[in-house]
Amino acid sequence: MARPNEKLAASLAELRELQRDGRRVFQSKELPRTHRERLLRLGFLRPIMKGWLVSSSPTVDEGDSTPWFASFWEFCGRYCAVRFGHHWQLSAEQSLLLHAENSAVPTQVMVYSPQGSQNATRLPFETSLYDHKDNEVLPPTEVMVRDGLRLYVPAAALVRVPEAFFVRSPVEARTILVGIKDASDVLSRLLSGGHSFVAGRLAGAFRRVGRTDIADEIGAAMKAAGYNVRESDPFTPTRTFAVRSPTGAPIVERISALWESTRTIVAETLPKPPGPPRDRKSFLTFIDGIYQSDAYHSLSIEGYQVTPELIEHVRSGAWDPERRDSDRQSRDALAARGYWQAFQLVKQLVGKIIAGENPGTLTRSAHRDWYRELFQPCVAAGLIAPESLAGYRGHPVYLRASRHIPPRWEAVRDAMPALFDLLESEPHPGVRAVLGHWLFGYIHPYPDGNGRMARFLMNAMLASGGYPWTVIRVEDRGKYLDALESASVLADIRPFAAYLAERVRWSMRKAG
User: Fold this and answer.
1) Could you tell me whether strands 89-90 and 143-146 are parallel, antiparallel, or unpaired per DSSP bridges?
2) What ranges make up the beta strands (E) of 265-388?
3) Nearest residue to 393 (alpha-carbon basis) of 463, 341, 320, 445
4) For the packed helices 494-511 and 477-490, what is the interaxial angle rounded to 10 degrees?
5) Does residue 325 register a pLDDT over 80?
6) pLDDT surpasses 90 at 316
7) What CA–CA distance (Å, rounded) separates 240 from 48?
8) What is the mean pLDDT of residues 379-386?
C-alpha cells in the first residue's frame, strides 16, 4: 500500500504535467478526482468557481489574494475560450487598458459574445466577469489575441469606447492616441460606420495630445464623404498634456504620462529641497550612521528576519561563509550581506551626486551593480543560480496581494530606459525621488529585490536635492504598501507622496 508521501508525490506529478506550459488555471476535470481532492486539501490547489481551479501553495494563507490575482487574466482567457470558443472579446475599454500596459485586476471585467447571457459570474476576492450578449459578427481585422485574451485592436476600440473613457482613463487614452501610426487606422472604421459624432470626438482627442496631423485628416476625410463633423475635446478641460511624438512602445508613453500627470502633486507635497550640502563629509557620515536602521527596516519590509546583531555581524566583517555554516546557509544573513555590499555602492554614488553629477545618468548604469551586489552572496552560497545576476527579468512577476500586475517582461526593456530619461530630465529632486521609487517598483524590472532597489533609488534622488537619507519603517509597512497600491492601481499618487513627505521631514529634523 502506498504511503501518504508517495500518494502526494503522485498527485504532484499529475499537477506538474498540467503546469508544463506555465499554466496556473485548470478545469477540475483535467485532474482525476483522487489527485484533485488531495491537492485541494493540502493547499496545492484552490477553487475559483465550480469546475475551475488555480495553483497555490500550502504556505499561502486562505485569505491571501495573491494566487488569484496572479492568475486572473489567465482564467479570463481560458474560461471564455471554453465557454464561447472564438466568439468573444473583452470590452473596448478593457482592451484599451491592456493595450496601454495597464493590466491591473479590475473588480469586474466585461466580455462581449453572441453567447452572452447578461449575467455576472462572481469570482474570488470581490471580482466578477460579466458576459454581455452581443450579436455583432466581427471581422478578423477588429480583434487580436494577446496572452490568451481576445482584444479589440486599438483603432477599433477607440471608435467604440464611450466619451467617459477619456475622463476616467486619460493616461491610457493618451497612450493609445499617441501610438496610432496613421489616420487611416481609425478613418476606415469611422467612414464605414458613418460615425460622424465619434469622428468629432476622436479628432478633438488627437488634437489635444498633439496629433494634429491625424485630427486634420479625420475632419477632411469625413467632410469629403459628406459628413458634418463637429470637433470636440473629450478630456477633462483642466488636464494638460505635453506634445510627444509616437514612440512605438505603449509602455514608454504610459510611464511618461504617469510621470507628467503626477509630478506637480509631488512637487507641492514634498518639503522644499535643502540644496547641495555645504559639508559633504558630514552628509556622508550621516548615511554611515543610519545604515543599521535602514538595513533593519528595508530587509524587514521584505520579510527577512533580521536583528541589529545580525546587521552588525555583517558590517564588522565577521560574516564568514567559508568557515561558518550558519553564515553560508542563513537566508537572512545572506540578504543582510548583500544589502551591506549594495549599500556601499549607493553611498559611493551619493558622493558623486552631491558633487554635482546628474543623478539620473549615474543611476542608469549603477542600479545594475546594486542588483548584482544584493544577490551575489546567494549566488556564492549556491542558493540561487548564477544566471540570476544577468539582469532584467525574462518572465512575469506578481506582487503579493496586489491588484497591480507589473508590465509584461517584454516591455521592461523599453520601460527602464524611459524611466531613466525622465530621471535625467526632471528638475525637482523630490519628484525624482518619489516618482523614481514608485515607477521602479511599478515596472518591477528584476526577478527579486525590487523594493530594496526602489528605496536605494529614492535615497540617491533625495541626495540630489540635499535631503537626508530617509528610512521607510517596517512599522509603516501596511501604510506604505497601501499607498503604493493606490498609485499603481488608481493612479493616485497623493497618499504615497504624503507618506514620503512625512518621512523626509522626520529625517530632516533628525539630521539637524
Assistant:
1) unpaired
2) none
3) 445
4) 140
5) no
6) no
7) 42
8) 82
Q: Report the first-to-last Cα separation within the chain, whole angstroms.
A: 73
Instruction: Supply φ then ψ for residue 391, to 5 degrees.
Output: 135, -140
Residues of each domain in the chain carrying CATH 1.10.3290.10: 250-511
Locate 418 and state its grid cell: 524611459
| Separation in Å, CA 262 to CA 52, 257, 484 | 40, 9, 13
pLDDT at 1: 59
Place of cell 486539501: 41
- Topology of domain 250-511, CATH: Fic-like fold (1.10.3290)
pLDDT of residue 3: 77
Could you please report the per-residue DSSP string of 160-227? HS-THHHHH-HHHHHHHHHH---THHHHHHHHHHT-HHHHHHHHHHHHHTT-HHHHHHHHHHHHHTT-
Torsion sign, CA atoms 447, 449, 450, 453: negative
Average pLDDT, integer, range 56-75: 92
Mean pLDDT for 189-200 is: 94
Tell me the C-alpha distance between 439 and 490, whole Å: 14
pTM, entire model? 0.90
Collapsing DSSP states into helix, strand and coil, what is residue 123?
strand
C-alpha cell at 105: 485586476
Scan for cell 487598458, then name that residue. Answer: 97
Which grid cell sits at 120?
455576472
pLDDT surpasses 70 at 198 = yes
At 250 the three-state DSSP class reads helix
